[in-house]
Amino acid sequence: MKKLIILTYIFASITVNTTFSQIDSSLLMKVPIDTAKQTMNMDAIYERPFLKVNKLPVSLGGYMEVNWQHLGTNGISDNHQFQFRRLTLFVASTISEHIKFLTEIEFEDGAKEISVEFAAIDFELHHLLNLRGGMIVNPIGAFNQNHDGPKWEFVDRPIAMTQMLPATWSNAGFGLYGKNYSDNWMFGYEFYLTGGFDNSIISNTQNKTFLPAAKDNPDRFEEIASGEPLITGKIAFRYGQIGELGISYMGGVYNKWQDDGLIIDDKGRCDVIDIDFNTTIPVINAYITGEWAMIFIDVPGTYTQQFGSRQQGGFLDIVQPVLKRSIFGWKSAVLNLACRIEYVDWNVGSFKETGGNIHEDLWSIMPGISFRPTQQTVVRLNYRYQKLFDILGNPPLITGGFLFGFSTYF
Asked: Closest Cα to residue 343, out of 320, 361, 370?
């Protein structure tokens, strides 16, 4: 009921304000994504299309995703499924010179879940020194920063970045960021101190080490379980059209190790290292993007070996434009062939008793085709073939099927 009230209030406010002011359509200005501008993944939070109304200080934008899928695992299928994955709203404002604000509010699964993914104030002091504070998206890897649906040729988000790392992982905190340009070179960095993980990453319904479980704790926006901040830092380099390379780190103590000054447990750390890259191959203009993450966790000795102390995984996307021309009145429509290769290992290591490999890993390949009537809208059809092995390496669960969907900025 509370979510329904919030939804009603937001859309009623927009409708009432628009009707009341009787804004002439000639005063509306759509600010598109500048596809010719060289940007980095760290710019993704602001590099979105916004709607500006005359001289009003607030700009609006957003995107939506709707999908159909027909998947089966070992011959058993749920048949046809339709999903309204998410509706995301952006609100941005230049408060004064060198001070700006942006928030991202997401409604997932038909508003079953409503969350504020980002809400921060930026103080622009120098191109190499800017202060950001609020609810911050931790810049671990590229996908966590650059996750908007319309930017991708695949219906599903990468498995490693959503089921190994916590996708769209954000926390309250403060930090610094900056960029520098020199000829064809671009350099950027980000450094934040934020809230972080808790015991749920090893004590959860998955019965395994599972970082995304920490997203279910709403108290992380008010208190840190360990009392110590999560450190997240990233440096990235880009050279002209060749591409971008980013290296990021996130780590800190995750467990409650003291209570009212009394030490009640050993400190347990969770550390993540992530490497991401993207490049465009000249002449054929094939776009390649990939990311690989490694997680290191202090798992208490009282836990069984099904709780991995090390995890790793990533993905590789290859997108090849095959047709670019005027289609059905869209002047710069593009047809792409695409393929995503994925791997995740939730438990890297060997059994102490036998020395045999601990499995619990996944392989997936997802070829697809996408059509972009404009750069801001994508229609995509994918086929998933996936193998999931249990901890003992028994014959895998094989999943296959089709996914189809739309995603667009508005």
From this structure: 361
Q: How far apart are CA 103 and CA 113, in angstroms?
A: 17
Element (H, E) at 51: strand 50-53
Rg of the chain taking only CA atoms, in angstroms: 22
Q: How far apart are CA 336 and CA 86, in angstroms?
A: 24
Encoding tokens for residue 172? 């309250």
Residue 33: pLDDT above 70? no
Whether residue 198 contacts residue 255, with contact meaning beta carbons closer than 8 Å, is answered with yes
Domains and CATH numbers, the chain: 2-8+21-409 (2.40.160.10)
At 304, list the tokens: 């069984």
pLDDT tens digits along 213-254? 999 998 899 999 999 999 999 999 999 878 999 999 999 999
Residue appearing with tokens 């009707």: 19
Q: What are the Cα distances from residue 244, in Å, to 155, 287, 342?
A: 24, 12, 20
The full DSSP string for 254-309 is -S--EETTEE-S---EEEEEEEEEEEEETTTTEEEEEEEEEEEE---TTS-TTS-S
* CA distances (Å), origin 409, targets 50, 87, 117, 130, 230: 9, 10, 17, 28, 32
Q: What is the DSSP letter of 35?
A: T
User: In the numeric block, which tokens belong to residue 350?
Assistant: 């060997």
Do the beta carbons of residue 315 and residue 291 sit within 8 Å?
Answer: yes
127 membership: H or E segment, kind and range: none
> CA 170, 218, 345, 67 torsion: positive or negative?
negative
Q: Are 155 and 69 in contact (CB under 8 A)?
A: yes
Q: Where are the beta strands (DSSP E) in 127-260?
A: 129-137, 170-182, 185-194, 230-239, 243-253, 258-259
CB 119 within 8 A of CB 134: yes
Answer for the pair 173, 133: CB distance below 8 angstroms, yes or no. yes
Q: Report yes or no on whether pTM surpasses 0.85.
A: yes
Residue 349 CA to residue 347 CA, distance in Å, equals: 6
Tokens of 119: 């809400």
Q: Per this entry, what is the length of the chain? A: 410
Q: Residue 358: is its pLDDT beyond 50? A: yes
Name the nearest CA neighbour of 341 among 359, 319, 311. 319
Whole-number Å distance between alpha carbons of 171 and 141: 16
Query: Which residues, listed in sequence order, are joined to residue 114 by a DSSP beta bridge?
Result: 107
Please say whether the dihedral angle defined by the alpha carbons of residues 72, 76, 80 and 85, taken in this order, is positive or negative: negative
